[in-house]
Amino acid sequence: MAFEGLTSKLQETFKKLRGKGKLTEKDVKDAMREVKLALLEADVNYKVVKDFINSVSERAVGEEVMESLTPAQQVIKIVNEELIKLMGSTESKLKPANNPPTVIMLVGLQGAGKTTMAAKLALHLKKHNKKPLLVAADVYRPAAIKQLQILGNQIDVPVFSLGDKVNPVDIAKAGIENAKKLERDYVIIDTAGRLHIDEELMQELKNIKSEVKPNEILLVVDAMTGQDAVNVAEHFNSNLDLTGVILTKLDGDTRGGAAISVKAVTNTPIKFVGTGEKLNDFEVFHPDRMASRILG
Ligand code: GDP
């Protein structure tokens, strides 16, 4: 699972602190230096780390800690609280449309796990008694449409497709009409990705956005790519004004940086995470649970 390196380093620091009893300002400073290094090694954005350490330090040398009977415990509590704040404080829910269907557009680079996530999200909604429709609007990647149809079949969710010769904007629009006809209350549009960000891709996504006015535009990014994931998020956000980010491959050997930095850098909340290749490997993102996982 992700965060192993970060978690063990933080635990080491906290263990040292606990061994000290009463803490001096120097003890706190030394601990903060170690936390800072651990976060940087976990590939957390430098500015995010700096701001985080400043916020924690400010509180940790205050009376909350210094006059406490369990100062080390107080420092850990502050780190935990600031980490939760950094990742968005509370769960960020999908915003349903006033008039169904709620339209969710999934965007991202190729290989991030977008198509898999479309099916995971559909399954999640289905478990919550919603009726999703998947729309295959990735007309460029060979087999993307077929892949979505196979996944839809597995979870018994209909997949709307017009093949790969039709403009994605028209596919998206027709998909929404189809959802209305079938009385589906969520539409999940799987859009095309590219290996790298390019203007053509961005323009196509903008066109879909302006034509279908989705309720949610969620960027799927690969957590294993660390700060790169955050850069990708910044770029997509500046073009599309994202409503959320989905981190995939959090089961892999990621260092955790993306989970910690994305919200702070892009001011866009993480809404869901993917934790494996199977369709059940999906979680709603809870900043407090993620913080507990990171702190171990
Ligand atoms: P797309 O090009 O963005 O649509 O990506 P795909 O959905 O085809 O996924 C690319 C690869 O990543 C596939 O082999 C998926 O099985 C794999 N994958 C997707 N999500 C996860 C995840 O959360 N964890 C792991 N380990 N693999 C994933």
From TrEMBL:
It comes from the Bacteria. GTP binds at residues 108-115, 190-194, 248-251. Its EC number is 3.6.5.4. One of its GO terms (cellular component) is signal recognition particle. One of its GO terms (biological process) is SRP-dependent cotranslational protein targeting to membrane. It is found in: Cytoplasm. Keywords: Coiled coil, Cytoplasm, GTP-binding, Hydrolase, Nucleotide-binding, Ribonucleoprotein, RNA-binding, Signal recognition particle. GO terms for molecular function: 7S RNA binding; GTP binding; GTPase activity. It catalyses: GTP + H2O = GDP + phosphate + H(+). Residues 269-282 form the SRP54-type proteins GTP-binding domain. Belongs to the GTP-binding SRP family. SRP54 subfamily. Composed of three domains: the N-terminal N domain, which is responsible for interactions with the ribosome, the central G domain, which binds GTP, and the C-terminal M domain, which binds the RNA and the signal sequence of the RNC. Involved in targeting and insertion of nascent membrane proteins into the cytoplasmic membrane. Binds to the hydrophobic signal sequence of the ribosome-nascent chain (RNC) as it emerges from the ribosomes. The SRP-RNC complex is then targeted to the cytoplasmic membrane where it interacts with the SRP receptor FtsY. Part of the signal recognition particle protein translocation system, which is composed of SRP and FtsY. This is Signal recognition particle protein. It comes from Caloramator proteoclasticus DSM 10124. The chain holds residues 1 to 296 of 446 of the full protein.
